[in-house]
Amino acid sequence: MKSRASVVGGVAAIAATFVVFVIPFIFIVLTAFKDRRQAGQRDFSWPTEFHLWDNVVEVVTTRNWMLVTAFVNSTILTVVSVTLIVILAAMVGFVLARRDSRWNPWVEFLILAGLMIPPAVVPTIWLLQGLQLYATLHGMILIEVAYNLPFSIILYRAFIATIPRELDEAAIIDGARPLDVFFRVILPLLWPVTVTNIVVQSVGIFNDFTNPLYYLPGNQNATVQLTLYNFQSQFNTSYNLLFTNILLITIPPLIVFLFFNRQIVAGMTAGAVKG
């Protein structure tokens, strides 16, 4: 009976995944191959002619190669933000897991508050303007780090709790300083959760739409998600170019997930049970 229920559940999960993820992706690919007239019908019909290459060239060259600039900006934003998130979250998680202090409950409260309380856009813009960081890439990097740091801290703290304290004590006996203990003993052991964190945060930041829309105006600061505005307006939308653009900016995160799928699952579950 349990076996039959598990089979039914598995089939249902596969069917739901197909409907939610695969069918929309097929629609995106089909529309990217069509011309403007046929794409405007917005159906699953087979393309009468294949215009993918023409669509790609037009998407890439639109508004003075804006998509290329957006890919550069998104890459810089993602790499720098994820690097800072990994280093800072690992250090905070190490301190919270290893040091029992009366401040720990308050720090944990602030971390949970960062996960639950939605960001205040207008005060954040005022703060960035006061610091002369509004509409700058390094200001956007600080925003991404601040918004994504709480989740990463919780992830690292759960994983570090599974590492025996005896390793720290042995390193200290051998003369290691606190930074040496972290960087030379603990950090190498965090590779599984670090891979997970890098992949999850990279995809999230690379695909972020709302934060660059609020905090990073200007064509020279455009990220890949904001280039979708190039082909849609209030009265007219070029669906063939729009979905070609979507296809181009979807490929990098899709490749990352395909290659690191097992590492993501392993890292997310590694700290679930304390050894």
Automatic annotation (TrEMBL):
Protein name, as recorded: Carbohydrate ABC transporter permease
Family membership noted in the UniProt record: Belongs to the binding-protein-dependent transport system permease family.
Keyword NAD: no
Annotated keywords: Cell membrane, Membrane, Transmembrane, Transmembrane helix, Transport
Transmembrane segments: 7-33, 75-97, 109-128, 140-160, 181-206, 239-260
Topology versus the membrane: Multi-pass membrane protein
Domain ABC transmembrane type-1: 71-260
Compartment(s) of residence: Cell membrane
Main subcellular localisation: membrane
Keyword Transmembrane helix tagged: yes
